[in-house]
Specification:
This protein has four helices and seven strands, in the order βααββββαββα. The chain is α/β, with parallel strands linked by helices and 153 residues long. It has one domain (9-132): Chitinase A, domain 3 (Roll). The strands form two sheets. A five-stranded mixed β-sheet has the order 5-4-3-7-6. Helix content is 26%, strand content 25%.
Length: 153
Amino acid sequence: MLAARPPAILAAEDASVLHTILDDPLVPDRTRSIVRRKLTEAHAIATEVPGDVVTINSRISFRLGDGAPISAFLVDLVRPLRSFHGMIPLRSDVGLSLLGLREGSRVTLDLRNVPTTLVLKRVLHQPQRQSRAIFGSTASRSGSDSKACPSVA
């Protein structure tokens, strides 16, 4: 029996970016279809995203098929760059497939009409995780507990 694939987890900000992509008249139909499927199947959360989930601007390590691990940033580029070394465009099949995956997750892509397995090895850096490390958890802060910053004379 095949194990059920856990749904992708989308940060609210990332889901908003995907909705913006749907509104872009220059986005190809194939990309729109992938974005719609991601929005339908993923679990969008407004609270903290686990640190092992790929979000936009995360630095990740993944593998395509039997290839060597690739380390790159997942970025939303409206205009394509000449070189993508070290960056995976969100609007690509690989980028959209990576968004919302958890470490260890596998998905099968159709790259150039060849089924290819994509495996997320690690989330090396996630902006939300970095923010929590600096500012603390939003769950541990509340309006009644927050301390005012002292005024500077």
